[in-house]
């Protein structure tokens, strides 16, 4: 299966820069993966991982305004290397940690028009170009962004200018958010054509809604397929996942990513690797085929999953 987001023959695995653009993140063990957290050292480190991704054929890269300097790292790298790739970015969160891992607050969420109008030119400047996909960051029904006519009209303008606009989702109500977004219209047309959502074997509840989005012609990007490290061996592994990994001679991260890649509605599945070694392990997912039905019993209730995620420490 190919993806409309990717050039022919490119792997359907993409690279997300949430763990590469700022010194603190909630992935398990993230702090230990970065030996030098100064901005200059982190740019060098990010470029090394990006080079590894490019050499492996990866052509989809995901950033956001709240990922510290991720957009700058990515934009500078693309220009320095002369690469052309598909780039997704997001608006709606502002990074406020000031490069500290011990900050009380790392990012602030706001889905109003002022934030959109401020962050769109910031993204253009950081990337040095318009992103191919531009998403509302973690849209939920509670923020009211899908009912905000001023925001929707501005996004429709961007869509009319050739930017694919959409939303990313999070929280136990992901499916409801996706379905509401499918109903949005501005002057009789839905400006959205892409969605990025959390799907993994612990939290697959949004799957049916993503299938509906895919059937409607939307591009679907999967994030957090390894559950912020819970499915990588840095936490107690579910026995079923360990067994499938043993049978396939693959690490749990590769199995978890392969299960996401096996979903027929998934156009791109993001690796959130912090190191080149992690990325190389993730790439093993592209070679895994088989029956992942043994993992179906691992699903937690959405409420329980997101409560656990909320307790993960920034590190």
UniProtKB/TrEMBL annotation:
Matches recorded under SUPFAM superfamilies: NAD(P)-linked oxidoreductase (SSF51430)
Protein name, UniProt field: Oxidoreductase
Source superkingdom: Bacteria
InterPro entries assigned to the protein according to its UniProt record, in alphabetical order: AKR2_Oxidoreductase, NAD(P)_OxRdtase_dom_sf, NADP_OxRdtase_dom
Domain NADP-dependent oxidoreductase: 45-288
Organism: Deinococcus aerolatus
Pfam families: Aldo_ket_red
């Amino acid at each position: 299966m190919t993806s409309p987001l990717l050039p022919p023959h490119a792997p359907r695995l993409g690279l997300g820069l949430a763990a590469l653009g700022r010194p603190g993140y909630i992935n398990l063990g993230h702090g230990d993966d970065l030996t030098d957290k100064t901005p200059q050292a982190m740019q060098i480190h990010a470029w090394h991982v990006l080079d590894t991704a490019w050499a492996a054929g990866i052509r989809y890269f995901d950033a956001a305004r709240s990922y510290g300097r991720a957009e700058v790292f990515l934009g500078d790298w693309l220009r320095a290397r002369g690469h052309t790739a598909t780039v997704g970015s997001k608006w709606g969160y502002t990074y406020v940690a000031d490069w500290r891992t011990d900050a009380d607050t790392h990012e602030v969420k706001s889905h109003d028009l002022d934030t959109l109008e401020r962050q769109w030119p910031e993204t253009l400047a950081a990337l040095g170009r318009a992103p191919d996909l531009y998403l509302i960051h973690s849209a939920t029904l509670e923020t009211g962004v899908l009912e905000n006519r001023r925001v929707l009209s501005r996004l429709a303008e961007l869509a009319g200018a050739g930017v694919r606009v959409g939303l990313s989702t999070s929280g136990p109500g992901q499916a409801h958010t996706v379905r509401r977004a499918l109903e949005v219209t501005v002057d009789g047309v839905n400006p959205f054509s892409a969605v990025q959502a959390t799907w993994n074997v612990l939290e697959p509840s949004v799957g049916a809604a993503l299938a509906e989005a895919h059937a409607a012609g939307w591009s679907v990007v999967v994030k957090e397929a390894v559950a912020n490290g819970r499915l990588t061996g840095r936490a107690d592994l579910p026995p079923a996942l360990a067994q499938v990994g043993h049978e396939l001679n693959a690490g749990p991260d590769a199995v978890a990513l392969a299960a996401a890649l096996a979903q027929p509605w998934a156009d791109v599945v993001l690796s959130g690797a912090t190191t080149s070694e992690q990325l190389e392990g993730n790439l093993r997912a592209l070679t895994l085929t088989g029956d992942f039905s043994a993992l179906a019993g691992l699903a937690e209730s959405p409420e329980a999953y997101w409560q656990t995620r909320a307790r993960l420490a920034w590190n």
